[in-house]
Amino acid sequence: MLHNLDDKRHLQFWLLHTLGWIGFAVVHYLGSLVQEMRDAYLWVVLLDAFVGWLLTIPLRYVYQRAWYWHPLKMILTVLLLATVVAVVWTIFKNHSYWEIYRHGFQPKSWSWAQLYLRHTPVSFYVILSWSGLYFGIKYYQTLQREKQKLLTATNRAHEAQLKMLRYQLNPHFLFNTLNAISTLVLTRENDTAEKMVTRLSDFLRYSLYKDPIKKVPLQQEISAARLYLEIEKVRFSERLKVSFEISDEACQALVPSLILQPLIENAIKYAVATQVEGGRIAISAKKFGHDLLLEVADNGPGVPLDGGLPKSENSGVGLVNTRERLAALYDHNFSLVLTHNDPLGLKVNIRIPYELDTTE
Q1: Residue 118 clears pLDDT 90, i.e. is over it
Q2: What local confidence, expressed as pLDDT, does residue 336 receive?
Q3: Which of 176, 265, 308, 334 is deepest in the core (most CB within 10 A)?
Q4: Residue 292 burial by CB count (10 A; 0-12/13-18/19+): exposed, middle or buried?
């Protein structure tokens, strides 16, 4: 998809670039008709437009790099290149005018610079206009891409929410939780049962009503994870051991809502539930440079890793869903890596940009 988008932008450049110089030639020629120039001037106009077309092509590749520079550096670069190209283009235009329209007339040596560099300001404004149009169109295309990414992220988030309702809060989870509550009631552990109902209610409220499109502080995600794990602890009792290591800086970072949920649920399902003695889940988060690093590790049997996500239908659903959401929200500026835990188990590491809520 990205390759097709690059091809489309490449084609758009050549189309607009060519149409722009054709328009320049038409306007320039119509102006010559007002001045009653001879028909030979048409060849001068066509040649000038063609050379302008050629000279501005290299500017595109320089401007592609300059787009990411500091604004002042970018502006100075554009002005310098526009001046250089304008001087070269002006010399050629005046030379072609003398050769074609004046039949090889050569100006005197003392007036060479004056004659061959005249109208340089006009050429400068033309090249500067070309540069302005280039950056204007590129900025517009960037806005369109950002809108498209936002729409994609919105769709992915809604899909993630639907998938969450399908495989994270599945009937088995609700059945097991309600069964555990029922057991507590039968054994007259009413206080514990009441706490479980409250936790289940809070977790369902967070899962169902939290907007999956918006990013939330990590501390909210950790609170939701604790609710989920407390519910699961009723099922597994001492078989489920959990540890958190969240730095203060990481707590304030913004993350996609419910980004940890499928990773924790996978760890419980494949690392804790499958072992008689249970297992341990370690959740950590810290800031590293300009990035936020998240990790969910377990000491279960692990899964085969072949340089990507697990191929198994039973183990990779939540991971694939998570990667899709991250790709939609952060484009290429993220990573999701699976590694073997030492000595046993699986670690899922997520790296995303470190962002803070600036609306407050």
Answers
A1: no
A2: 93
A3: 265
A4: buried
Bridge partners, 351 (sequence order): 293, 335
Token output for 128: 């500067």
Buried b (16+ CB within 10 A) or exposed e, 312-341: eeebbbbbebbbbbbbbbbeeebebebeeb
Checking if the pLDDT of 307 tops 60, the result is: no
**259: closest CA among 133, 156, 124?**
156
Radius of gyration of the chain (CA): 32
| Other Cβ atoms closer than 10 A to 252 | 15
CA distance linking residue 29 with residue 42, whole number of Å: 7
Distance (Å, whole) CA 294 – CA 336: 10
Per-residue pLDDT averaged across 179-205, rounded? 81
Q: What does the alpha-carbon distance between residue 177 and residue 115 come to, in Å, rounded to a whole number? A: 90
Longest distance between any two alpha carbons in the chain, whole Å: 112
Looking up tokens 């969910």 gives 296
Q: Structure tokens of 159?
A: 């899909």
Query: Which of 52-61, 89-98, 107-116 is predicted most confidently?
Result: 52-61
301 close to 321: Cβ distance less than 8 angstroms: no
pTM for this model (two decimals): 0.53
- Determine the Cα–Cα distance for residues 29 and 41; give it in Å rounded to an integer: 8
Would you state the structure tokens that stand for residue 168, as one six-digit string? 């994270």
Mean pLDDT of all residues in the chain?
80
How far is residue 193's CA from residue 232's CA, in Å, rounded to a whole number? 13
Helical H segments across 210-316, by residue range? 218-236, 248-251, 261-267
272-304 pLDDT, tens digit each:
888 888 889 999 999 999 999 999 999 888 776
Identify whether 301 is preceded by a cis peptide bond (ω within 30 of 0).
no
DSSP 8-state secondary structure symbol assigned to residue 325:
H
DSSP-derived 3-state class of residue 95: helix
Q: Which of 334, 336, 337, 338 is nearest to 355 (CA)?
A: 334
